[in-house]
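Fill in residues.
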């Protein structure tokens, strides 16, 4: 029997239209994957939470410090967006990889002899291992901060200005990285002022800053101790570490989570609160009393908890099961379950009576806090979507599971755009 020639190869049957790109995605999907896609499409069409839709997945969000806040939404760039209209106002381009964190603040600058103006600045951290300081109005990059040897996972502004810093604005910032270190930076010169290392066993995922007495002192000693700035970092080893910013020494460790901590959050924006909240892959959000460095509340979830934020009497969590949950801090009781997102919730913020939630589903959703308080969203907790897996133990890999998921999704988006 003669073989088909190369010229006849096009006549050889190749199966059910494999060459037809429009059918390829469905061809290689399982029934569960197809059903999950339909479920997400139905949730998207419901438009709950007055969604603002973006063309890219949202890795982080912050609100600029002004009466009319802007979201800063990140993928390979930073977008400045009006919270009320949802329209993009500015795009900041320069990073060579996905931007994972952003912060906004003001600084006074001399624009003419004897004339000083209040300027808005942005600080962003990226998978390209750098931080960038931007002029928010001109979009000009002012400084590039280099020193980390792996992805930057989170940043936080220093609180030095609260103790008499220059013009009442932050002069320092902190970053944490997959390289297992935290760094302190000058926002005036871009110099690295300190490195905090050799304590976490693995990557550092999140960072926050508090202002208060030494957390290792007892109540009597703390009452007369100096008020200082303290650095708190959370990592894949399931611990939160407290650092003396001057000596670089780890002075306290918060232990209790079974696996990776994705977020650590100070309960007040000025860092003067008496507790911290953490969100973990072990399906819990926990509150830690800074006076005793011990856990006093644990809130159970049906899936990994990705983000946490406090607003008034509530603590709000974002979960991998796509739901935002609102708990009463005093009682620990679930007050509301906000269903609208169709992917995990990466970031939560609040301003002027509105709760903002940002997700990998490429939307920011807006929830009036008055509606939450009135019981509009009150309901029994919902189960996780079908196929939700148990929280995984730490793995021996160059990337964490979260990074592999994010990278795969980002590359998927890039392929779709080509």
């Amino acid at each position: 029997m003669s073989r088909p020639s190369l010229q006849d190869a096009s006549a050889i049957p190749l199966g059910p239209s494999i060459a037809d790109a429009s059918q390829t995605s469905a061809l290689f999907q399982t029934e569960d994957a197809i059903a999950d896609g339909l479920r997400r499409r139905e949730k998207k069409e419901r438009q709950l939470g007055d969604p603002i839709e973006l063309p890219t997945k949202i890795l982080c969000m912050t609100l600029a410090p002004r009466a009319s806040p802007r979201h800063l939404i990140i993928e390979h760039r930073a977008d400045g967006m009006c919270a009320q209209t949802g329209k993009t106002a500015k795009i900041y381009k320069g990073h060579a990889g996905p931007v994972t964190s952003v912060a906004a603040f003001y600084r006074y600058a001399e624009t003419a002899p004897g004339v000083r103006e209040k300027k808005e600045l942005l600080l962003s951290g990226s998978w390209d291992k750098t931080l960038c300081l931007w002029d928010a109005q001109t979009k000009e990059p002012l400084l590039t901060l280099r020193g980390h040897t792996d992805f930057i996972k989170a940043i936080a502004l220093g609180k030095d200005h609260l103790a008499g810093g220059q013009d009442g604005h932050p002069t320092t910032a902190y970053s944490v990285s997959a390289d297992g270190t935290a760094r302190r930076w000058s926002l005036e010169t871009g110099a690295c002022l300190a490195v905090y290392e050799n304590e976490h066993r693995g990557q550092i995922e999140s960072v926050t800053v508090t202002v208060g007495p030494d957390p290792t002192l007892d109540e009597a000693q703390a009452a007369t101790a100096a008020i200082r700035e303290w650095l708190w970092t959370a990592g894949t080893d399931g611990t939160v570490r407290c650092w003396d910013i001057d000596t670089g020494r780890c002075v306290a460790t918060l232990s209790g989570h079974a696996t990776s901590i994705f977020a650590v959050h100070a309960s007040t924006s000025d860092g003067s609160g008496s507790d911290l909240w953490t969100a973990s892959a072990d399906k819990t959000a926990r509150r830690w009393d800074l006076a005793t460095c011990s856990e006093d509340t644990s809130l159970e979830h049906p899936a990994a908890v990705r983000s946490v934020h406090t607003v008034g009497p509530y603590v709000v969590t974002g979960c991998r099961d796509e739901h935002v949950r609102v708990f009463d801090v005093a009682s620990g009781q679930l007050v509301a379950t906000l269903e609208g997102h169709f992917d995990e919730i990466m970031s939560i913020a609040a301003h002027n009576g509105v709760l903002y939630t940002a997700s990998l589903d490429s939307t920011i959703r807006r929830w009036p806090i008055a509606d939450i308080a009135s019981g509009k969203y009150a309901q029994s907790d919902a189960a996780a979507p079908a196929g939700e897996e148990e929280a995984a133990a730490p793995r021996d890999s160059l990337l964490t599971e979260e990074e592999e998921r994010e990278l795969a999704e980002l590359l998927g988006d890039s392929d779709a755009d080509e």
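The first strand starts at residue 52 and ends at 53.
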